[in-house]
Amino acid sequence: MNKAKNIKSKKLKAIGIWGYPDPEIFLQIRKKYPQHEIIDLDINYKMPSSNILPNAYCRIIKNIIDNSIALKENLEIIVAAVGEEKCDSGRIAAKILQDLGLNIVQTKYNVSYKNYNTPISKSNLHLKKKVVTIMENLIEKQETDFEATTPEYGFWGVPPNDFSILELFPDTTHVYGWTRCVEAGRPADIDLEMFVDENVPTVFFAQTFCSKMQMAKYLAKKYNGIYIDVDDKASSSVKAKIEAFIHLG
Questions:
Q1: Which of 57, 71, 241, 242 lies deepest, with the highest CB count within 10 Å?
Q2: What is the rounded distance in angstroms from the CA atom of residue 159 to the CA atom of residue 178?
């Protein structure tokens, strides 16, 4: 059973988050509700559609709205990233949910001066495990040594709605873009977000209808990579395109 359905079926209380919540505010709320479950509302738990947003809209924001509405009775509070570290759609989603009666704490974490290492992004973990570990570290930090690899391929972008995309890449794939910024503790650092290692064949990914599409498209052209955008589930043709790029890379 997925986490959202488990919380709902067992009538558990939870703290919801999305994006990169301010760590200090998030810690204060966790201390206030130490027994509550923590759930990342960005993730697609296959909850019923709330029919609040247009059909042609970012799937991740749809996840946030649908999850929050479905878990309204369970969510004690939502810690919502609404600054440059997320997007304007995240800010609007927070306002909509607040208007619908959910308890929202808005945070902005536009730090760009920290210089954390990014060992997970450069590790020999499978790409899906890299991305999952980076995002789970927002909730519970894992103090683990990671073996570094030389990048043979790159994945640039945000954690996709369809994680099966990440299963197409070899373990020698480095993580770039917003996901690496999250690991670095600098989610709003646009210069770090635009960084990739030159001459590393890189897939530049964005969710369809996300503003990061323009950055992904631009960087793919600049670094001779490929640009991919996916709305909900990746089609077989999209996966074939990624596999061909990796094979020929």
A1: 71
A2: 9
Strand order in the sheet with 37-40: 37-40, 14-18, 75-81, 104-107
pLDDT at 141: 85
Residue for token pair 């809209």: 57
Q: Do 244 and 151 share a structural domain?
A: yes
Q: Are the C-beta atoms of 87 and 211 separated by less than 8 Å?
A: yes
Tell me the torsion sign for CA atoms 111, 217, 44, 130: negative
Give the 3-state secondary structure of 10-26.
Answer: CCCCEEEEECCCCHHHH
Q: Is residue 116 included in any domain, yes or no?
A: no
Distance between CA 98 and CA 104 in Å, rounded? 6
Task: Dig out the tokens for 127 from the structure.
Answer: 């790409």
List CB contacts of 45: < 8 A, sequence separation 6 or more.
Answer: 2, 3, 4, 5, 63, 67
Q: How far apart are CA 198 and CA 157, in angstroms?
A: 16
Q: 140 and 235 share a domain?
A: yes
pLDDT tens for residues 232-246?
A: 999 999 999 999 999
Q: What would the mean pLDDT of 27-34 be, rounded to a whole number?
A: 97
